[in-house]
Specification:
Helix content is 34%, strand content 8%. It contains 4 helices and 2 strands.
Length: 101
């Protein structure tokens, strides 16, 4: 008798996993433009409170990006709004950095 894991069942039904049982996670501690502080702490706190263990408990292997540095160091000294967009250059740089990972 073969045991089927939750990960295998999900992979069979998901167009995004393509029959894989590995989940890649990229943590992006970033809050460019959010009106409330603490948004950038979200990824670190989710890992600290066990999201990786929960995913592994469903039968997936987890690959965590090691690039969890704070994106605050990228913030330009002068980044005026463009229309309703807050910190447009900062947000653009962060998005590009994530895409290149």
């Amino acid at each position: 008798m073969t045991l089927v894991t939750d990960a295998q069942l999900m992979a069979d039904r998901s167009k995004f996993l393509k029959n894989s049982t590995t989940v890649g996670i990229t943590c992006v501690p970033f809050s460019g433009g959010q009106p409330k502080g603490g948004v950038d702490d979200g990824p670190v706190e989710m890992v600290r409170f066990g999201i990786l263990d929960q995913i592994q408990g469903m039968g997936y292997s987890v690959e965590l990006s090691e690039n969890m540095d704070k994106y605050r160091t990228m913030q330009p000294a002068h980044d005026p709004p463009i229309g309703k967009l807050k910190n447009p250059r900062y947000v653009s740089m962060a998005a590009r950095r994530v895409a290149e990972q």
